[in-house]
Amino acid sequence: MEFATLERRIKSTFPTLSPQLQRAATYVLEQPDDVALISMRGLAAAADVHPSNMVRLAQALGFAGYQSFREPFEHRMRGDTRRYVTGAEKLQERGADGEASALLEEVIASGEANLRGTLAINNEAAIVAAAQALRAAPRVFVMGMRSCFPVAYLFHYLRRMFMRGTFLVGSPGSTFGDDLRDFGPDDLLFAVSLAPYTLETVHAVEQAKDRQGTVVALTDLPGSPLAKTADHALFVPQEGPSFFGSVAAAVTVVEALTVLMVAEGGDEALQAIAVSEGQLLRSNAYWHGGHRGRRRGAADSDQEE
Q1: Residue 160 contacts by C-beta under 8 Å, 6 or more apart in sequence?
Q2: In this predicted model, what pLDDT tens digit does every residue of 243-295 receive, in sequence order?
Q3: Pick from 256, 241, 252, 254: which is nearest to 144 by CA?
Q4: How far apart are CA 56 and CA 37, in angstroms?
Q5: Which domains does the chain have, with CATH numbers?
Q6: pTM above 0.70, yes or no
């Protein structure tokens, strides 16, 4: 069922519902993203109703159960095939109306809301368990394509600083099939993909599970093809005014996982970080000021003075 059809059904059925079901219906209409992102119990708590009322609401609307009721909300978040063009058109309309200031405020506000939403969606135990799996695995393959590549690369870069056996999947000149050729039962795939999901990442997760490996997924919805297969799944909202989904919350989760891994890494992690830092300093990786690297124009103007 399309979300628009369900929305009309909820509104037409609303007068016949009990007060508790009306409270639940009001909440899902006002906060449709929460239905897609938050567990049934979390949604019931936010709506201030008993969890059983969410099941009753689904049944009153003609669904066999809560999960089938939830699916139109998940499809709504994934968007249609023209989501980028439609989003860009809306941005241009607002730009033409002189709403630049409002857009900037929305970017910041939505980023903050996504971070708060991440804490609401994922309980502490789930994040800790994912971090422990990522720290314990002898080899971790990291994959994120297109807009998720920066998120995956950040995790790959940080983990390599204190743990061996960290490999980036899909580097230039290779395919995920090449990079996962010797993936086995003792290995772990850390996969990042947000709707619309990249086909290669979905296939890589399936391949990793076929080989009895472990999968930690960073994605957006419980109905994501990554989440359905993963051993550990963490979820991030990606709402925002842009035509493209925000990855700010995903970056924050990567930072949180890194913090937890290092915090439990002991002397081995400290020694590895010291070695990595020493190598960076010896290779002169960072700018230290002084005359080296100054722009020619600045040097020329100094000489002219």
Answers
A1: 166, 276
A2: 667 888 999 999 999 999 999 988 998 898 899 989 888 888 888 776 554 44
A3: 254
A4: 20
A5: 3-78 (1.10.10.10), 124-282 (3.40.50.10490)
A6: no
d(CA 193, CA 243): 17
Q: Which two tokens stand for residue 106?
A: 């929305």
Structure tokens given for 238: 């990606």
Token pair in block for residue 247? 């990855």
Spatial separation of the C-alpha atoms in residues 36 and 75, rounded to whole Å = 9
